[in-house]
Amino acid sequence: MIDLRLLREDPDRVRASQRARGEDVALVDALLSADERRRSSGMRFDELRNEQKSLGKLIPKASPEERAELLTKAEQLKADVKAAEAEQNEADEAAKQLLLQLGNIVHSDVPVGGEEDFTVLETHGTIRDFGAEGFEPKDHLELGESLGAIDVERGAKVSGSRFYYLTGVGALLELALVNAAIAQATEAGFIPMLTPALVRPRAMEGTGFLGQAAENVYHLEKDDYYLVGTSEVPLAAYHMDEIIDADKLPLRYAGFSPCFRREAGTYGKDTRGIFRVHQFDKVEMFSYVAPEEAEAEHKRLLEWEKQWLTSLELPFQVIDVATGDLGASASRKFDCEAWIPTQGKYRELTSASNCDGFQARRLSIRYRDGKKTQPLSTLNGTLCAVPRTIVAILENHQQADGSVRVPPVLRPYLGGREVLEPIAK
RNA sequence: GGAGGCGUCGCCUAGUCCGGUCUAUGGCGCCGCACUGCUAAUGCGGUUUGGGGCUUACCCCCCAUCGAGGGUUCAAAUCCCUCCGCCUCCGCCA
């Protein structure tokens, strides 16, 4: 959630942010009046309660006849206090509900617009010219099947569309990627974490995934658990309700977990292969930092992502995601998009978001610097989303004979293997 | 799944049986001040969190907060109910 003080002091800024996201600006005014009601009903309750307390102190000391009178008065007060409390609770709840609907304030440098209105910040690596090399590139599924690495047919048989098996070298490739990614993150000072994949509603809500993103979240109704779409959720909720000493910051975690996404509203999109699937594994970086460090940390996360993609020898570009495509929690988001030869375009492989205090406020995570206690900033960035990385590696490193060159960074984790060869059918 | 125990303002802890004197005790840690060649020790004061009022700010004041939420009562850390978490034992299990 955003800072209510900011809303009171500079409502126009909040309105502008809401407009840039393409969301309803009327929500801001509804929230302002709800906040006012919350405040006045709170004051009324405090007053009555104060009166009740002072009256209550007199009763044990009163003489019998005074006592009877006081009790009558107290009884009346009791009803008033109860009514005022109900009013206060209702006003609090109403304000909270509105507040939870409001997305984070967008950073002023973010390009305004929808999915297609991003700004390209950088491009890295060289796109291969397969024409000059004299062969037509195969797509990742064709390659994956001939390598005995990917089986989507049986994935569909067992679990339905958008499910897959990684088999043989495919399975080994995932393990290699995960190990290499965790090694890079650990080297950079991240604490490796294996996290729960099922979380309570509070964790899901606190990270901002139950707003407009809710339709993409799996929910186990019988137990009221949510399946996480990213380990960002358990990593953010890890320090929920805690106050962290300033000298402990920054805290950096590298989470590894399965990720589950319903992919509602993507019918017919990326249906071939394993680019868009319901379940995949991912190594995610997560940082807790002091607010004044957030922007610098955001750039650092991006640098680590670039280091990773560069080490895999993939050509990619970095984009500044537009306001309409940010998601509720982020004030700014940088995506790294790798070149996919058979699609002839760059596709998202990693995503680094600066959430400022948005998640920290919802999850009640603060830090103490001297006397001050205030929400800290949380940031997250993908290091390796496995299936998409496999797609990019297979397609970009394929050779004319249908084999795939293994980038050196992965070789130690693949028993020194330099090439993945097609297997006989 | 069954039985029992526990949850107090950083940590430990008193208080809960028997409701009001709890404005929650004491210790540790931490912060400030005093004293002191330095350090240590000692003394004094402070030290939950959230909301609100007053303020440039500080200070100060009010309300809530004893795992969470309800209930009983004029009044709840204390009595009742539900839930959550942790621990012990039993059962089952990768």
UniProtKB/TrEMBL annotation:
UniProt keywords, alphabetically: Aminoacyl-tRNA synthetase, ATP-binding, Coiled coil, Cytoplasm, Ligase, Nucleotide-binding, Protein biosynthesis
EC identifiers of the protein: 6.1.1.11
Enzyme class of the recorded protein, top EC level: ligase
Pathway info: Aminoacyl-tRNA biosynthesis; selenocysteinyl-tRNA(Sec) biosynthesis; L-seryl-tRNA(Sec) from L-serine and tRNA(Sec): step 1/1
The protein, known as: Serine--tRNA ligase
Record comment regarding domains: Consists of two distinct domains, a catalytic core and a N-terminal extension that is involved in tRNA binding.
Catalytic activity line of the entry: tRNA(Sec) + L-serine + ATP = L-seryl-tRNA(Sec) + AMP + diphosphate + H(+); tRNA(Ser) + L-serine + ATP = L-seryl-tRNA(Ser) + AMP + diphosphate + H(+)
KW Nucleotide-binding (keyword) present: yes
InterPro entries xref list: aa-tRNA-synt_IIb, aa-tRNA-synth_II, aa-tRNA-synth_II/BPL/LPL, Ser-tRNA-ligase_type_1, Ser-tRNA-synth_1_N, SerRS_1_N_sf, SerRS_core, tRNA-bd_arm
Quaternary structure and interacting proteins, as annotated: Homodimer. The tRNA molecule binds across the dimer.
Pfam families: Seryl_tRNA_N (PF02403), tRNA-synt_2b (PF00587)
Main location: cytoplasm
Location(s), subcellular: Cytoplasm
NCBIfam families: serS
